[in-house]
Amino acid sequence: MTICTKKNVLNYGFKTGLLMKIKHTNWLPGLFMLVISAQIFAQEESLKTLKQFDRIYDFGANGISWAMVESENKFGFIDANHKLIVEPKYDRIFVFGSNGISWAKVEKNGKFGFIDSQGREVVPPIYDRVFYFGSNGISWAKVEKGGKIGFINAQGVEVVPTVYDRIYNFGANGISWAKVEKGGKFGFINSSGIEVVAPIYSRIFDFGTCGISWAKIEKDEKYGFIDSSGKEIVKPIYDRIFDFGSTGLSNYAKYMKGNKEGLIDSNGKEVVFSSANRKK
Question: Which pTM value belongs to this model?
């Protein structure tokens, strides 16, 4: 029920004019009547609030001290004083703290967002899916909208726009970045949400798997390398590139390009050693 505090009593007294009447009568009985009147008023206001709901659920049953309320199949929350904290406008409200963050996921018209422990809508319900925070090698939560993937952070900010067909886990490709796919092409984003490698490659191999720290790339059926800054250190112009060290020279990788074979050194420079025709 609503607590009848000194402030509430005085506000009620001013509002009703009872406080002015007390000044001209015996103040002690008058003050007593004022307190009783304020209590009755508070109870009546509390009942008015409660009567607007079709159902009131148990307090503390949703990971927070509030009680969920239902009105015309929509859900919200009231606190222990029967004050409306979250207007009943959501189709579903999930348990607070159940998505890897202290917030509660909400659903409205088939879209998802979040409210915080103050009842504020920190993420508007605009996403088709919201994944768990911290489940992709980073503290963010993956979100999906219109079949495209992005990320929101723990402040509710969309740090990676929903433009990718797929986003792989951070740190899963031999580097701290996350591989992204867009239109069948691959690139990378970093842990600040910045696209460090544009999705222009048909394949990107893991960093450090070709005898060097770089990652092999494929574009238009040609191969090259990018380094750990995202720079194209070897342009994708070769029909084939073997691993560094596979020819017995640790700092060189053998390549094939048309009818030419040669070596690439660890600076990405080409060293030709043969121009004999290859058998096709």
Answer: 0.78
